[in-house]
Each structure stands twice: as structure tokens, then as C-alpha cells.
Amino acid sequence: MDERRMVRVSKYLAKHLRHEPERIGITLDDGGWVEVDVLLKAAARHGFPIAPEELAHVVAANDKKRYVLQDGRIRASQGHSVPVDLGLPVTEPPATLYHGTVGRYLAAIREQGLRPMNRHHVHLSADRETAERVGGRRGVPVVLVVDAGAMHAAGHEFRLSANGVWLADQVDPAFLRFPG
Fold first, then answer.
1. Which of 33, 42, 115, 165 could cysteine-pair with 73, CB 3.0–4.6 Å?
2. Can you tell me the distance from the alpha carbon of 145 to that of 114, in angstroms, rounded to the nearest whole number?
């Protein structure tokens, strides 16, 4: 499978497993899962056929491990804007986590902190490099340092997705360190 096709399939999956399942006529269960056969048939009806081998390759080769295949079902690891409960347990985070963004959002973040916006959670990275890559998708990256240890001690909950992304309901400005 060539790289362009892999990216197209991955983006198609993200759109329909995280944000708009109804657009192709699928329904995610409470945990965000859908039967692989149901997804493949719906994609074909929608004019975007995906071979089972392509789907398996995208899931296995995706550098961010965005999707999970299990027992003939598939779901996105995190990042949903549709109601799902991933069933992730509350987990104690490392002392420091990171968030990648761009400069144009800093004023709002300084005032309001990190909010999930149209998703269920704020996404945090365990390392600065990953946060830099995330922020770099929208321009020149700015990496914020999150005092996750202090947040946890203050009663905030964290969850760890299957692909290593840390999830929090929000991050107040008091727990953020800004560059410069």
C-alpha cells in the first residue's frame, strides 16, 4: 500500500470513527466500537472501498496507533467528538506532561487553560518531541509544560489511551508553564 493511500484511509477512518459515523450509516457502540464488516460495507456504499488488508495495514502501520482492532471490531483510540466511553481507567500520570500548540492560541490558553474544545478530553504527550510534532501540524510549534503531578495531587483525573496519549478533562492555567 503506498503512503498516499494509507494517509487517505487513515483520515477517512478518523472522520468516521471519531466524528461522523452517521455520515456513512454506521453506529458506534457505547465504547466507540463498530464491526469491521459493517465499516467496510458502509465505506464501499459511501464510495470509498477499503480492502480488509488495507484496513489491517493502516491499523498496524499508523505511527500514532490511532486505531485498535479487536475481536472483529475497530475503534479510534481517542479524539472523539461523538459520545463514547472508552472505558479507560483513571491512571496516575508522570509528574510532567506536555501539550503542543501554536502561538495564536497562547493568549486564550493563558486566560482559560487547555480545554477539550469539540473533543471529550485535552490531549497531552509524555514527551516534548511528540508535543512539538502535534503543535507543528498547525504552524510553528509551541510546547507547554503541564504540572501533571500537581494536578493529580489536587484531584484531577488522567487517563491513558491505548496509543499512549494522556487525556485530561481540562488543564487550568495554574498548572501550565509557558515558554519564555
1. 33
2. 11
Question: Which one of 4.10.910.10, 1.10.10.10, 1.10.10.970, 2.120.10.30 gives the CATH number of domain 3-76?
Answer: 1.10.10.970
What are the angstrom distances between the C-alpha of 34 and each of 1, 15, 16, 68, 79? 24, 14, 11, 11, 16
CA distance linking residue 128 with residue 97, whole number of Å: 8
pLDDT in tens, 113-140: 999 988 889 999 999 999 999 999 889 9
| Measured distance CA(144)–CA(177) in Å, rounded | 6
Measured distance CA(4)–CA(148) in Å, rounded: 37
CATH T-level assignment (fold) for domain 97-177:
ADP-ribosylation fold (3.20.170)
Strand order in the sheet with 97-102: 97-102, 141-146, 176-177
